[in-house]
Amino acid sequence: MDRPVIKLDGDSVVYARQLAKEITDEVKNELIDHYSTVSVERTVLRFFGVDGVTRDQIPLVNVVVDKLKEWSMLEDGVAKPVVNAMIVLEKSAQEICEAISDGLDLRTLPDAPFYKIESKMRELSKEALDKLEKKSSQRNDLLKLLGDPPKPYKYLIVATGNIYEDVVQARAAVFQGADIIAVIRSTAQSLLDYVPYGATTEGYGGTYATQENFRIMRQALDNAAEKVGRYIRQVNYASGLCMPEIAAIAAMEGLDILLNDAMYGILFRDINMIRTFTDQYISRLICAFAGITINTGEDNYLTTADAIEKAYTVTASQLINEQFALKAGMKPELMGLGHAFEINPDIEDSLLYEIAHAMLARELFPNCPIKYMPPTKFMTGNIFKGYALETLFNLVSVMTGQSIQLLGILTEAIHTPHLQDRYLALVNANYVFKAARHLGREILFKEKGFVEQRANTVLRQAVNLLEHVKEVGLLRAIEEGQFADISRKPDSGKGFEGVFRKSENYINPIQDELENRLGVKK
């Protein structure tokens, strides 16, 4: 083991996980199992092979789901009426959806025998997941061929707005030592209730997440990976109002990591709770099946709340996110739970606090690829102090055995990073990671010393919060502002109009096939 260890109170760990399980059981049983969303239904159509946009650039899947909603046919799920039309008219799902866009009214069609509909739905679902399985196998083969770089993986963001410029920056980063390339999304794409189409060259603060953009970057990274002789991971964002759709197209194009966290969407994007918890479940089924690692956003809590006083909210949320992921059939190896280096550097022993919090996350989730986020809140524009902070951040990461390291940028809080800023971030990480590669195996933390006691204090505080959340329910706890000091209401937020209650006859064959193959309890 290349990291030190601390002793956590075993009873508290077991109790915390039990509380988190009971909290998420309630959300699953009372909400997720009874609701679907327009994005979930659009995801089904995408798996059935439906693609493209209308002459007005509206995604075909949006047109069809909106029509079914207008016709009061959506409560049974999109699959049954579309597959019925496929059988009656002897056409593909793509052809049926194009016909609906051109004026076909599914209400006018006769009903095919249900056994034929059921058989066709199973056939389409099996074909779709077989393709995902093949894609995932190809990624694993390439990983074995090229080799996995040592941890912490160096994670770097590109965000030009132009996918082709992103490729140029990504290749340069790979040749300088980056292991993970994240294409940050254009500002506010998470609030779009549709997935943009095709390659894009204009975006503000980032580049649109589209299937074609995924494909372009995937090819570029694979080419670069062959040149440097190590596997390069590709990241995007399966969050916001199109969470399951983006998970689906990312899986189709062989992405490795997706930022995926309903709690983040609720708190920081004001997305409706029911909408995003439901979307998250389906998206995580897809990620679990395709072998895609998720990253959660607990690190963001410390940008709005104090990192020492509210450290326990990060731990409590990590435990809740772990249980949500387990319910969707995810293995710990795919749970990139988030935390951050966000303590005020002017506080005495701030480094010890940071080490204690990093060790708590690492010890509590030993099999998870923990994602460690850099300083942002206390980056002031003083690039020299900022660079020193990034150096300490990199040192804590390699010393405590973190898995995924989003590299800090010395010009944080000044401007969108230039190429040279990213270059210096990689230079710093390369130096520190190499110089301290095995430092962790040489360190013993003092028994009942500051680091161990602080970690256990935060754990006990997290247990106290989880007890309260269990008592009042997760939705009520969020409304109280228990996480990130932000309050949201269950019946408000963006995307609520896209939520509907399932009928007794609701069918989602893609979900059924995913759950069957993953062995998920229904």
Automatic annotation (TrEMBL):
SUPFAM superfamilies for this protein: Cobalamin (vitamin B12)-dependent enzymes
Transmembrane regions listed in the UniProt entry: none
All copies of domain D-Lysine 5,6-aminomutase alpha subunit, residue ranges: 7-512
UniProt-recorded Gene Ontology molecular function terms: catalytic activity; cobalamin binding
Name of the protein in question: D-Lysine 56-aminomutase alpha subunit
